[in-house]
Design goal:
The protein contains six helices and 45 strands. With 730 residues, the protein is mostly beta strands.
Length: 730
């Protein structure tokens, strides 16, 4: 075959190798390096397998640019000044396994930009200016194993942004500006083993998003401004290597990694840790690296030191204090050497630790830590009664958690015009006075969780017009603070979870015109007024799980043309009537109806819903049948676990439908007795049903059925079929 290929290339090489290119006929390799090409040459040998175009000036890759070279397996377009990929730019390259687009100027990935690359295994997009990835951009890359998005301008990852990447092993997102990750951002990555999120702007460990990665073994979160790792913050069942080096860590909860039991290597180098507690739930831990931390080797570190010996964990690190132990490695210490007799107790406002200050450094309030490199200030857990002042004017993140301030007075943060993120969690705050945030003209993130706030005056937000993310979870609100949002024209995300809100009334959200994500889980909401959500016409995500709703709030859903996710899980909705989701049928993509005790779903409950639905969660309910969903052709996740299906002839249409899906749905027969516990797809209870033989031929060969299903999905939606609950058969 190679001889024939070489002969074919040799016969046409002289006529089909344009200047300034060089054609290597034997290797089927064409190089057009560092030239002045402004268009993709179309006169190169048709049988070329490797095409190297580095260093040219294409600006735009037009549709079907490589139709003349359908046998390409490797394509290199680095440093070609590419700014835009037209839809269908690579169509026809079904054999391509390697595509390098690094160091260009690409800003946006369109939904069809990468269409036609069904065999692609490595995609390198590092060093571009990508700010946004449209949903579905990677939907055609079902063979991709490595995706490199390093050094772009990504700020936010929306839910399901990586859908279609069913075999992806390594996702590289380092050196972006990521602040926020959608809770389902990684939900469509069943094969991912390695995730690189280092060198971003994550201010907290994104535990909810990471919990979707059951099989990931390697996670790099280094060089992020994360200050604290909370209780059970990381739930990754297979994780073995965790990097949190060069962050801003000041504290780690003892059970922070208890839900990651396979953890073996923990890298905490170059943080601000004075010590660690004994770590629970990590029986497989082999090494913890603490080099570069200001370790205080006093009696407070003794429990951790004893735990290291007992658990046989190797620790790397050296004491920074007291002076008698400075420089001593942790493994050389003995418990009796770690004394507290002449050391001051943990930091407090009356006895703050001395902070070394480099010559020429900026001011910092006593007892606080200011990092000029990260532009961060922290007075976390200093038992302060009043909010300190005199932080450097270029401070961008201010961490004041765990101080008993009780109130935030007017003008509490003078001179901090560049402040972007303010942390006031667990500060016993009851009142934000009018003007409390005055002057914070750059503030984007405000965290007020775990306080005692029951009401808010709109004037409290005067002077913070850029505020986009407001987190008020775990407070004492009994209703949404009406009128509060009129001074927040840029509010995108509002968290009011785990309060005591009983209803959502008309006018509660007045002024929240740009709101996209509303989180109201864990309240006591029984009623949502028909016009309550009317001001939020841009709303994309509505989370109402864990409330007291007894019916779907259909009337309140009118006027929400962008709503793509609705969570009603854990509400006591027993019956679901006709057309309950009709108001949002044209936009809804993710619907959560699990754990509700749902007993009956009307045959017409899902009227209007169809191909746009990508994920549907119905697990842990009590109904014995579900409506016809044969037009849900875009489903990627369907969960029917723990539903007691009655496997008789009435269920035959459902059985046939799920038999055609390339998804694992978890449907199990709950009755009759002879079928109990069997998968619906495998139960023989249907073989006596009228019409069973009509579909029998298709059902006796499930592989053929799934192949047909895949083919039909491609034709209907133009997308590669994506993964569901998991990639094995139901």
């Amino acid at each position: 075959g190679l001889l024939l290929l070489a002969a074919a290339l040799g016969a046409t090489a002289a006529a089909r190798c344009p200047a300034p290119c060089v054609c290597d006929n034997l290797r089927a390799h064409v190089l057009c390096l560092n030239g002045s090409l402004t268009a993709i040459p179309d006169t190169i040998p048709e049988l070329t397998r490797e095409f190297d175009l580095r260093g040219n000036s294409f600006m735009v890759i037009p549709a079907r640019a490589f139709l003349a070279t359908p046998y390409l397996t490797h394509l290199d377009l680095q440093r070609c000044k590419v700014e835009r990929l037209e839809e269908g730019a690579f169509r026809g390259l079904g054999r391509l396994v390697y595509l390098n687009l690094a160091s260009n100027g690409i800003v946006l990935l369109y939904q069809e930009s990468l269409d036609g690359l069904s065999s692609l295994q490595q995609l390198i997009l590092a060093g571009n200016r990508i700010e946004e990835i449209q949903p579905g951009a990677f939907g055609h890359l079902g063979s991709l194993t490595v995706l490199d998005l390093r050094a772009n301008a990504l700020v936010y990852l929306p839910d399901m942004v990586f859908q279609g990447l069913q075999v992806l092993k390594w996702l590289r997102l380092s050196h972006n500006a990521l602040h926020v990750l959608g809770s389902e951002a990684f939900a469509a990555l069943p094969a991912l083993r390695r995730l690189s999120l280092d060198h971003n702007e994550l201010q907290a460990l994104p535990g909810e998003a990471l919990a979707r990665l059951d099989g990931a073994t390697w996670l790099d979160l280094g060089h992020n401004p994360i200050t604290y790792v909370a209780e059970e913050a990381l739930a990754m069942a297979s994780l073995r290597h965790l990097f949190l080096d060069h962050a801003s860590l000041q504290d780690v909860a003892s059970d922070a990694f208890a839900r990651s039991p396979q953890l073996r290597i923990l890298d905490l180098r170059e943080n601000q840790l004075q010590g660690l507690p004994p770590l629970a739930g990590v029986g497989g831990l082999v090494r913890v690296s603490l080099d570069g931390n200001p370790l205080l080797c006093s009696c407070f570190l003794r429990p951790f030191h004893k735990w290291l010996a007992r658990a046989r964990v190797q620790a790397e690190g050296a004491c920074a204090a007291p002076p008698t132990l400075r420089g001593r490695s942790l493994d050389s210490l003995k418990s009796l050497e770690m004394r507290c007799s002449r050391l001051r107790p943990p930091p407090s406002p009356t006895a703050p630790p001395e902070q070394p200050r480099a010559a020429g450094s900026q001011q910092c309030p006593q007892g606080c830590v200011c990092s000029p490199d990260f532009h961060h200030g922290s007075c976390e857990n200093r038992n302060l009664q009043e909010i300190p002042r005199d932080f450097p004017e270029d401070t961008r993140l201010l961490d004041l958690r765990r101080n008993p301030f009780r109130t935030v007075p007017p003008d509490a943060f003078p001179g901090l015009k560049e402040l972007v993120s303010l942390h006031l969690q667990r500060c016993s705050i009851r009142v934000l006075h009018p003007g409390a945030l005055r002057g914070l003209e750059s503030l984007v993130y405000l965290y007020l969780t775990n306080n005692h706030i029951s009401t808010l005056a709109a004037a409290a937000f005067e002077g913070a017009p850029q505020l986009a993310y407001l987190d008020l979870d775990h407070n004492a609100f009994t209703r949404v603070p009406a009128g509060t949002f009129r001074l927040l024209p840029n509010l995108i995300s509002l968290h009011l979870q785990h309060n005591a809100i009983k209803e959502l009334a008309e006018g509660d959200l007045a002024g929240a015109k740009g709101l996209r994500w509303l989180y109201l889980a864990g309240n006591a909401i029984r009623h949502i007024a028909p016009a309550a959500l009317a001001p939020t016409k841009m709303l994309e995500k509505l989370q109402l799980e864990g409330n007291h709703l007894s019916e779907v709030p259909t009337a309140a859903l009118w006027g929400l043309p962008a709503l793509s996710e609705l969570k009603l899980s854990r509400n006591p909705i027993k019956h679901m009537g006709d057309s309950v989701f009709l108001p949002v049928a044209s936009s809804l993509q993710h619907l959560y109806l699990d754990n509700m005790g749902l007993e009956r779903i009307s045959p017409h409950a899902f009227t209007g819903l169809g191909p746009k639905i990508r994920s549907l969660y119905l697990e842990s309910n009590k109904m014995s049948n579900i409506p016809d969903m044969s037009n849900f052709t875009g489903l990627e996740i369907l969960n029917l676990q723990d539903v007691p299906f009655h496997c008789d002839c009435q269920l035959l249409p459902l059985r046939r439908w799920i038999n055609k899906l390339n998804l694992r749905v978890g449907a199990i027969c709950g009755s009759p007795e002879e079928a109990k516990g069997l998968k619906v797809k495998l139960s023989t209870a249907f073989q006596t049903c009228p019409g069973w033989g009509q579909g029998k031929a298709g059902e006796t060969n499930p592989n053929k059925t799934m192949a047909a299903s895949k083919s039909s999905k491609k034709k209907r939606s133009g997308k590669s079929p994506a993964r569901g609950f998991s990639k094995s058969k139901a």
